[in-house]
Write a structure and sequence with these properties.
It is a single chain. By secondary structure, this protein is α/β, with parallel strands linked by helices. Helices cover 43% and strands 11% of the residues. It has five helices and four strands, in the order H-E-H-E-H-E-H-H-E. It has a four-stranded parallel sheet, with helices on both faces.
Length: 195
Amino acid sequence: MTSEKSWDALIDESLAIFGAINILVNNAGLSGSFVTDDGDLDAWHALVNVNLTGVYLGTRTVLPAMKEAGGGSIVNISSASGLFGSTFGHPGYHASNGGVRIFTKAMAFKHGPDGIRVNSVHPGYMPPMRSANPASSSGGRLVGYTPLRRRGETIDVANAVLFLASDDASFITGAELVVDGGLTAGYGGYPDLTV
């Protein structure tokens, strides 16, 4: 995600196999709980580098191919934590996911005339990320904060991405699709919450 050469190689290989690129889903990230020290500068850099710079590099690298193809759809995976702050998890997680949200809107505005739609998806409480710290799990509490009273499943996010990538969303760009069971609909009283 953070290597320009790797992105270049991926785009070249994809073009060689498929002939064109119409869809990019930027779906890699580090959990805000993978480190417990809020003052850890290395953790800040890691979170911003993977969660935000990776999205930037993927988007930047695919744009020429999408323009050549006559347009396309870019879907950036962020987090509901990109929409609010809390005391839980490293602040770089919130900042990097909030950055993905605003970057998405900027790219939608800039590349709409090229026929390229750019949207973001903001999952709520889901199965833990691979980089999550197991000791920081707050499962039962988060389900209690979620109006639908369950955690989301990866298929919930996949279906949102499929919609945004499809022609069914042909007039949707610069949008943030929140897939959180209603969590952010009433968020405000849970300062220890992060997803």
